[in-house]
Amino acid sequence: MTNLDLTEMRAELDAKEADLRRSIDRLTAPVSDGATIGFGKRIGEGTTQAIQQMADASSAQTLHATLDAVLRAKAKLADGTYGQCDVCGEPIDEDRLEFRPWSTCCMKHA
Predict the structure, then answer these.
(1) Statement: residue 41 has pLDDT above 90
(2) Within 10 Å of residue 81's Cβ, how many Cβ atoms?
(3) Could you identify which of 33, 67, 78, 109 might form a hypothetical disulfide with 20, taking C-beta atoms 3.0 to 4.6 angstroms apart as the criterion?
(4) CATH number of the domain that residue 84 is part of
(5) Which of 30, 12, 13 is nearest to 68 (CA)?
(6) What pTM was computed for the model?
């Protein structure tokens, strides 16, 4: 990890965390008052909205998983283990960390 700028990595992780939190908040915002959601015999506005909410919930789950990885990477920065695989303890390739700073496992264990 000699070539990575840890200050830059922290800034990228902070930015990613903020972006993920905004996206999750948007996807999980409560339905507006007066909206009806349901599946009926015919496709209508309620059905379309219900399908969209199901898709948003799935996207939010994916974003939560990425957020967990970002928070883990930030914890590793704080405890001095950033760049080491969580599984085997070997160094994570710098190209991988530059591409995806929240990587907490080497390619073998990803």
Answers:
(1) no
(2) 14
(3) 67
(4) 1.20.120.910
(5) 13
(6) 0.77
